[in-house]
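I hope you will forgive my troubling you with a question about protein structure. I should value your view on which stretches of the chain appear to form regular backbone elements. Here, with my thanks, is the record as I have it:
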Amino acid sequence: MIVIAAIVIGALLGWRRALALGGNRRDRAQYAAAFALAFAVIGLFATVIIDRMM
């Protein structure tokens, strides 16, 4: 669940970042994908750490 939320949040933040930098639609999609992947990895680590604590 954390990973899915992280992907969505990452994609939105990436899209907004590219928009702020003046990127076209392809730039926005690339930023959204990169941020989504980065946030997914962070979310995965968070999920594993939380699971190990319990």
Remarks:
- The mean pLDDT is 96.
- The chain has one domain: 2-53.
